[in-house]
Amino acid sequence: MNAIARVDGVLESALRAGEAPGHPPLLAAAMRHAVFPGGARIRPQLCLAVAGACGEPGSGTADAAAASIELLHCASLVHDDLPCFDNAALRRGKPSVHAAYGERLAVLAGDALIVMAFEVLGRDAAAQPDRLCALLQVVGGAVGTPHGIAAGQAWECEPTLDLAQYQRAKTGAPFAGATMAGAAAAGSEPAPWRGLGEGLGEAYQVADDIRDVFGNPDDLGKPVGQDAVHDRPNAVHLLGLDGAIDRLEALIAAAAESIPLCPGRKALHARIIEEAQRFLPKKLRRAA
Known about the structure:
Oligomer: single chain
Structural class: mainly alpha
Radius of gyration: 18 Å
Helix content: 55-70%
Number of strands: 2
CATH class: Mainly Alpha
Strand order of the largest sheet: 1-2
CATH superfamily: Farnesyl Diphosphate Synthase
Number of helices: 14
Order of helices and strands: HHHHEEHHHHHHHHHH
CATH architecture: Orthogonal Bundle
């Protein structure tokens, strides 16, 4: 079974558990709308790739870690699209959760998905409690404060924006959580894997800036030009297109080189270089 199928199986089981008799049907529908159909599932795939590189090619603990990271990512998208933030009506090619179900249910759906992420860990990783403790710390750090997704969103509310802290928290934290959770799920020390995740997260942010300027909303499944609308920093505006692509390529190369010593280091290095090419629209990809 491939990585996406494994993660989607855990996500489906988690959502079904939340649809037990007596549940609020609209909340359940809003949560399912946020999770399925999924996007590229980049973060959970990265989590499983790191677990495999550390010698854990397939386990319930690794699958739970990957699914928890994806649930947190989905929750962040629901909240990011809210009228009080980006007010985005489209996500993954369909109405965003608040556009489809209303703002109140969108807030609750995002909150419930965060809780569900920890429920998945508690249920599916309980057989390895020594790894579960590390996973809870890693996943909690990816979503909370001082440097998780919530902190990243909060920087938009500050009178002065610290760009480095903002991007590291909002975009980098889920990637760092994915790499560190993959290591923890395999019984390896997670801290050495932070650099890989943060490097890929920064690269993804630059790629997202490029897509926001040059992407096609039909291909991306979401509006473009949002950085200009919301007066947010953008790598293309600062560096130009060629400069932004140069920066992206340098970040990917540095991230791949930062992979700690592990049984599958060589294969993981090659996979990251290959998969990262998909960060950009095809028309902007450079020949290898």
